[in-house]
């Protein structure tokens, strides 16, 4: 491999590492919220008739989790704590975010809040939100005037 190709590959690898660093340091996740000190990562998907949220909450106790759905947003809150540890003498690496969290997700369309469901399995909170169906026809009753 020639010198230029090596330099290009090295630069691409450097850019890939910087991209990973920036994704992990998103401003929204770094700033403390009013009711929690961290925000769990999540993905939001849209299907034909539903929105889906996948929220990474590994280690969170299911009983501490709360999901509140409104017509155009969903609020996820709870708490994650590590199990009791033995006496710690030194910390070599510290990456897991702990304590209370609060995350609000705005949605681009209205959802049917009465049909929202959620499940917590293998550390992943999955929220399914059916879109609110718009009626194409509405029968308007005519009342007598004065």
TrEMBL record:
The record's comment on protein family reads: Belongs to the small heat shock protein (HSP20) family.
Outline the extent of the SHSP domain: 33-146
Superkingdom, natural source? Bacteria
PANTHER family reported in the protein's UniProt record: HEAT-SHOCK PROTEIN 20 FAMILY MEMBER
Give the residue range of the signal peptide.
none
Q: Which InterPro entries match?
A: A-crystallin/Hsp20_dom, HSP20-like_chaperone, Small_HSP
Q: What is the recorded name of this protein?
A: Molecular chaperone
Give the organism, scientific name. Answer: Desulfolithobacter dissulfuricans
Kindly give the Pfam families that the UniProt entry links to this protein.
HSP20
Q: Which PROSITE patterns match?
A: SHSP
**What is the organism lineage in this UniProt record?**
Bacteria, Pseudomonadati, Thermodesulfobacteriota, Desulfobulbia, Desulfobulbales
């Amino acid at each position: 491999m020639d010198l230029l190709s090596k330099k290009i590959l090295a630069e691409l690898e450097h850019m890939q590492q910087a991209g990973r660093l920036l994704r992990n340091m998103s401003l929204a996740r770094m700033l403390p919220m009013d009711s929690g000190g961290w925000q769990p990562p999540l993905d939001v998907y849209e299907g034909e008739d539903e929105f889906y949220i996948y929220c990474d909450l590994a280690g969170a106790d299911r009983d501490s989790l709360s999901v509140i759905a409104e017509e155009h947003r969903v609020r996820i809150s709870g708490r994650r704590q590590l199990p009791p540890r033995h006496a710690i003498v030194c910390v070599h690496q510290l990456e897991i975010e702990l304590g209370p969290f609060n995350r609000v997700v705005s949605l681009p369309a209205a959802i049917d809040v009465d049909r929202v469901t959620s499940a917590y399995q293998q550390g992943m909170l999955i929220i399914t939100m059916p879109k609110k169906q718009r009626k194409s026809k509405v029968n308007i009753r005519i009342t007598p005037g004065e």
